[in-house]
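Deviations from the work plan: none for this task. Representative record:
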Amino acid sequence: MVFRLLISTNLFSMLATSYRDCSVYIKSKEAPAKDVLKDLVEMCRAIQHPMRGLFLRSYLSQVSRDKLPDIGSEYEGDADTVMDAVDFVLQNFTEMNKLWVRMLYQGPGRVREKHEKERSELRDLVGKNLHVLSQIEGVELELYKDTVLPRVLEQVINCKDELAQYYLMDCIIQVFPDEYHLQTLETLLAAFPQLQPTVDIKTVLSQLMERLSNYAASSTDVLPEFLQVEAFSKLSSAIGRVIEAQIDMPIVGSISLYVSLLTFTLRVHPDRLDYVDQVLGACVKKLSGTTKLEDNRAIKQVVALLSAPLEKYDDIVTALTLSNYPRVMDHLDNGTNKVMAVVIIQSIMKNSSCISTADKVEVLFELIKGLIKDLDCTSADELDEEDFGEEQNSVARLIHMLYNDDPEEMLKILCTVKKHIMSGGPKRLPFTVPPLILSALKLVRRLQGQDGEVVGEEMPATPKKIFQILNQTIEALSSVPSPELALRLYLECAEAANDCDLEPVAYEFFTQAFVLYEEEVADSKAQVTAIHLIIGTLQRMNVFGVENRDTLTHKATGYSAKLLKKPDQCRAVYACSHLFWVDDQDGVKDGERVLLCLKRALRIANAAQQMASVTRGSSGPVTLFVEILNKYLYFFEKGNPQITSAAIQGLVELIKTEMQSDSTNVSPAPDAFFSSTLRYIQFQKQKGGVMGEKYAPIKV
Ligand SMILES: *[C@@H]1O[C@H](CO)[C@@H](O)[C@H](O)[C@H]1NC(C)=O
Ligand SMILES: *[C@@H]1O[C@H](CO)[C@@H](O)[C@H](O)[C@H]1NC(C)=O
Ligand SMILES: *[C@@H]1O[C@H](CO)[C@@H](O)[C@H](O)[C@H]1NC(C)=O
Ligand SMILES: *[C@@H]1O[C@H](CO)[C@@H](O)[C@H](O)[C@H]1NC(C)=O
């Protein structure tokens, strides 16, 4: 043993010396360089100790580097000599790689680890050969295709060493030009399935695809179309074969391969949606063995896979045409499905894409079903309210992005949306019903004034039909229950029905709002808000005949007088005065009823005043009186004969007295309000004209 080592040590230094001499010899040009080099490589075989062999060869390359025959090089230069040079390097490469692989050490774990580390440091020496090959100028495409690549790959495959294979494949991809890769894709890709099963092929392949897509993106015009097409199908089938061959590859590995392929496709063939769909389809096939993904890294890759087309096209409509898209989504767990749904909606918002057919809406809502209904059994208290609200608001915004100019198609879209959101359960309806209603009312406004002629068998979209659908939709809110919201929506519908001249429909909606008010709205603050909404809407109605109008106004005033707090009562009652006198409706000018309302409001204000002085020992706010005074002035100017200057004068005096009686505790607000009201009267008097004459008798 010692003897062998001695010999090899001696041999080693001898060879090293002789290399130096040879290098001088080549320089002298006394013998052809290739012969000298050949001898040198032969001699290296004598050294079988891997480490020494490696170094010796490395050294050989150092001294012979500039002596390699190459076309146009200093020493010799025709095609033959290029071939010689290539041969030489290839041989050197083969030998070195063999030595390197032989260094694989099978000792105990710890020592082995250290060894592996050394070994991987040495790999650069092997890789350098490939680099040298790529630098030889005579290595053109033909030579690379016919000789270099096949021989290098042969060596890579035959060495059967995981580390070497991974490293060398990566080396090949990095050192040779992308154009060569494109032209030899088949040969290169065919090697992958033959590698050891443990080799990290996906990283290498991804590198390759990334380089190719960068290359293609930077030079589409020089790349023949057919080559691009072939590149896709070759890569695609190579990936298929690799995945088939590497049975043990974890699912995340295969999916990241598909992500790389998809990235390649989107960059090189942005217009080939069929390719994109093919990649997704392959992924579905791979996933179909598993039910739901559980590996987090794999889930991330699937999300990347699904996000890539959205980012590329900035447009969900394109993604909706990919038949395999929803099938990939089906493999996500419920939580991730939701995350993906949010990404999709964001993409729609970002691009302001308009989804314009019911079919597309159907596909879209299938995709985002994670947000539309409860997929999981998360109980209510586990739910993050804020997140939930944000998600549902994004669905609400989405509903406004669904639009078609054609009323028929728009109605179909609305029905599709309705179908989906109705399955959303009580938590979601308050978020999703209002945008649907408002979107439908927009359609009603478009149809308004158009008589729906019946075309063929099918009923065209008519306001009447839409109102029916809306009626059912709002009714669903009773399951929440959310009476205030429903009431508001009924009133919106009533107003729209009014504008469509549909008296019975408008009346029905009002009736339903009233039923809700009576039976469901219990909170006193909510009642106040509701009452003012009702009064405001009713005032704008012009479709009602006398009888219907009377019924509704009567109820509204009745509710007003029954509000819990006096000030609320007072304000609601004087607001009702507007129900009897509408400026632009000749039929609604009942001065007497207006006066009755205002007098009633005054009585309530008075009662409120008394109550306040009983409970707090001081007079209550005079504000109510001032507010009523302003109503008097309004109807006075509008020409209501029941409102006289004398009545106004009386009210002014009353307020003055009230204010003086409580000079200790005058709050500045009503005082200022009153002062400016008086200033207004003064101003009207001074202005003269018809109005000035009217105001003349009032003294302030
Ligand atoms: C032989 O391999 C060594 C080790 O990588 C390298 O440094 C040298 O360049 C190669 N020799 C030749 C002549 O290419
Ligand atoms: C939305 O996408 C389309 C192409 O699908 C593009 O033409 C348009 O400019 C994009 N709009 C915005 C606001 O990004
Ligand atoms: C996911 O959603 C489906 C319904 O689509 C449901 O049957 C399943 O229980 C949900 N999974 C979990 C873990 O909640
Ligand atoms: C809404 O539906 C209810 C019954 O579900 C019906 O009583 C009511 O008249 C409908 N309203 C309208 C405006 O069609």
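The two ends are 129 Å apart (CA to CA).
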